Amino acid sequence: QVQLVESGGGLVQAGGSLRLSCAVSGRIFSSYEMGWFRQAPGKEREFVARIKWTGSSTNYADSVKGRFTISRDNAKNTVYLQMNSLKPEDTAVYYCAAGPWLGGTDTAYDYWGQGTQVTVSS
After folding, report:
1. What is the predicted pLDDT for the residue at 11?
2. 64 neighbors 82 (Cβ within 8 angstroms)
3. Is the pLDDT confidence value at 60 over 90?
4. DSSP string for residues in 53-64
5. Which sign does the torsion angle of CA 72, 73, 79, 84 carry?
6. pLDDT (tens digit, 9 = 90+) per residue, 66-86?
7. Which residues pair with 69 in a beta bridge?
8. Which of 33, 42, 56, 60 keeps 20 to 30 A from 105, CA to CA?
9. CA angle 101, 45, 78 (to 5 degrees)
């Protein structure tokens, strides 16, 4: 069983920055992919960013490209999401996820954290 625990959320003014952390424990395989998702009030959950556990391949949603950076520290079993130039529309609960990469953009995200709230004020 893989456990994911997010931290680092909070209240920030527009234009500010936050760094989210996802602590990973349990069995994880080199073929896994890590992802960040978010869900705003009244909206469906959406993809934000993803990174493979091995290698340097990353991918971002167009809405956050150039502002957000996903990274990992395998020695610390931690995945990060650096968020810069935050906008009110970034307000959401942010979730960390993990699962086996199946090829292309297809990943079976079997494990999810409980989420951390990010609120961006005008």
Report:
1. 98
2. no
3. yes
4. SSSS-EEE-TTT
5. negative
6. 999 999 998 899 999 999 999
7. 82
8. 42
9. 50
Backbone φ and ψ of 63, nearest 5°: -70, -20
At residue 105, the pLDDT reads: 82
Structure tokens at 62: 């167009």
Query: Per residue in 48-78, is it b (16+ CB within 10 Å) or e — as a string?
Result: bbbbbbeeeeeebeeebeeebbbebeeeeeb
Name the nearest CA neighbour of 25 among 96, 73, 77: 77
Cα separation, 72 vs 20, in Å, equals 11
Residues paired with residue 68 on neighbouring β-strands, in sequence order = 83
Among all chains, which residue has been given the structure tokens 């949603």?
Answer: 61
Token output for 41: 């009030």
